[in-house]
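Why should sequence recovery work at all? Because a backbone constrains its sequence more than one might expect. Tight turns favour small or flexible residues, buried strands favour hydrophobic ones, and helices have their own preferences. The token representation captures these environments compactly. In the example below, the structure is given first.
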């Protein structure tokens, strides 16, 4: 037997969606119409991705009392938009493009794409990706940059050792770390033109000198 039920309205009242490109973005805003909450008012606008334009957009969204701003994770272009909206007290959501692509009816143009994304977001059909808080983001950027620098340094050390091997200079045989104090002084002497093995051996320091004498 069929029975009458009453479902709660799951539509987010004030929502915005942004389609982000490198030089500009398209923002769609949907808010309730005055006097009739079943009708929606919609605004689609294009903005530059420069800081001043983004600040104007953020202030406009704050004035409209937007509850949620949805954007796709497009390359790294989303980061300045996300961080600036967050700093203005808005609630930006970063959604994974893979979660959005499977939904039917997606258009191909940027303007229609932002409208479609906004309609999907207001019906709460999207889930946000995890974006860590600002302190964690700064720490993550620092550690990733450090890892890149360490990788670059290791690659350069390997390249120098290969060059020495190609020149039949077996410095890595007598020095476990050719970039230690002794190894660097020997390489500096070689660059300066020193070719006498005895003089180069005199540049050995501390433990390396002791091992050289034992051998």
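From this structural description, the recovered sequence reads:
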């Amino acid at each position: 037997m069929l029975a009458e039920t009453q479902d709660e309205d799951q539509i987010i009242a004030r929502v915005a969606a942004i389609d982000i490109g490198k030089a500009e973005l398209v923002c769609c805003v949907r808010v309730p119409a005055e006097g009739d909450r079943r009708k929606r008012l919609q605004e689609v606008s294009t903005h530059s991705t420069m800081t001043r334009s983004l600040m104007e957009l953020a202030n406009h969204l704050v004035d409209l009392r937007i509850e949620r701003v949805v954007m796709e994770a497009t390359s790294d272009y989303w980061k300045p938009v996300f961080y600036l909206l967050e700093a203005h007290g808005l609630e930006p959501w970063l959604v994974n493009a893979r979660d959005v692509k499977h939904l039917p009816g997606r258009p191909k143009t940027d303007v229609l794409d932002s409208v479609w994304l906004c309609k999907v977001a207001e019906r709460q059909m999207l889930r946000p990706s995890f974006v860590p808080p600002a302190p964690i983001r700064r720490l993550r950027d620092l550690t990733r940059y450090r890892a890149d620098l360490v990788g670059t340094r290791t690659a350069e050390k390997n390249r120098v050792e290969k060059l020495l091997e190609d020149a039949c200079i077996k410095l890595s045989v007598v020095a476990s770390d050719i970039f230690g104090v002794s190894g660097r002084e020997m390489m500096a002497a070689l660059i300066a033109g020193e070719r006498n093995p005895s003089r180069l051996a005199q540049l050995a320091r501390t433990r390396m000198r002791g091992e050289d004498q034992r051998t």
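A few observations help interpret the result. The longest strand covers residues 36-48.
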